[in-house]
Structure formats: C-alpha cells, structure tokens
Design a protein that fits this description.
about 200 residues; GMP Synthetase, Chain A, domain 3; 2 domains; three-stranded mixed β-sheet; 5 helices
Length: about 200
C-alpha cells in the first residue's frame, strides 16, 4: 500500500507541477507581451480569462448545475481520500536484519508484529495487544496498543513490557534500538447482575 501511495503521490505532484509551470509560464509571457504559442487563446495583455458570454453560456441549461455540483463533490471526496491517505502512517512491510554474513536478511514486518503482539498480549495484566511497525526498513518504529485489565497498575505493565516484550522483539530482529510508542487502555467490565 505504501509503495502504491508513493507512486500515486509522485504522479499527481508531477502532473500538477507540469500543468502549473506550463500554464503559469504562458500566462506570464502573455501578460508581459512576449510571444506565446499560436494555439494559446490569450495573446494580449488586456485579454480576460473568461468573457461574459463564456461565463453565462450554460446558465439556462437544466443539466449544468447538477453536473457542476457532482463533479465538485467527486473532487472533494478524492481530495479527502488523498489527505487521509497522507495522514495514515504507512505500515512497514519488511525489515533488514543483520545476519552476520555481510549480506543481511529480510524479515517480514507482519511476522515481527504478530510475534511482538503475541508476547505482549501474554504479559500478566494485559488482555490484548496490537502492534504496528512504521518507519524505514533499516530504522523501524513501533506503535503498540495494550488493552489492560482493570486491576493492573499502568507502570507495572509498562515495566514488564519494556523489560520483556520490547527487548525480545528488538533482539530477535537484531536492532540496536526500536523506538516505541505505547498506548494503554483499560478493559471495561460490565456490572454484574445480582439475583
């Protein structure tokens, strides 16, 4: 997903940049009275972008305003999708692990996430754990969510997590450091009914 998103970003930014540079350059040249291509509709310094006839041409057509609103709505939805895709942190698909032979090895990110989450979820007082790896292949970062039991002190859970699960994950991947953001949330138990 992150590779595809990077490609889409590069293509969109490249196209937007090309359109802006070409269009802006030609408008600037026409505005300064320089020569512009023969196909360019504006060649004088006093030309307007849209004439009055162009601005009111479709006003009386029944299909015009619904079409304009639909196109703008689609553009807004696409822009919001793109913005949300930018804000999401990309999941790390693989890590480079030093295997000691100079070549290195590749470790799947989901495999490390699964092992890390299983070990963290098995800690005393932890009901469930979710792990997400982000960052670069050579410098990963972890985001961990721990769902804790109500009777457990958060400090104790963090100490056990750092001393056991985090240390094992870092050592098993051969990493010098694994910066980790941990979020704790307590399990909510419903009140029991007494008959």
């Amino acid at each position: 997903m992150s590779g595809m998103l990077r490609t889409v970003n590069r293509v969109l930014l490249g196209l937007a940049g090309l359109v802006l540079i070409c269009g802006g350059g030609i408008v600037l040249a026409a505005g300064l009275g320089l020569s512009v291509p023969s196909w360019w509709p504006y060649d004088g310094t006093h030309d307007v972008l849209l004439s009055k006839a162009d601005r009111v041409r479709w006003r009386d057509e029944d299909w015009w305003w619904p079409t304009v609103i639909a196109v703008l709505a689609v553009l807004v939805v696409l822009a919001l999708w793109w913005l949300l895709a930018q804000l999401r942190r990309a999941r790390l698909s693989e890590l480079l692990v030093d295997s000691g032979d100079g070549d290195g090895a590749v470790l799947r990110g989901r495999a490390l996430e699964g092992a890390f989450a299983d070990e963290a979820g098995a800690l005393d007082g932890v009901s469930r754990a979710k792990v997400r790896l982000t960052g670069r292949r050579t410098a990963p970062r972890a985001r961990v969510r721990l769902l804790t039991e109500p009777h457990v002190a958060p400090g104790e859970v963090l100490d056990r997590f750092a001393g056991e699960s985090l240390t094992h994950a870092r050592n098993s991947a051969g990493l010098d450091s694994l910066p980790t953001e941990v979020r704790l949330k307590e399990v909510k138990h419903h009140a029991e009914r007494v008959n």
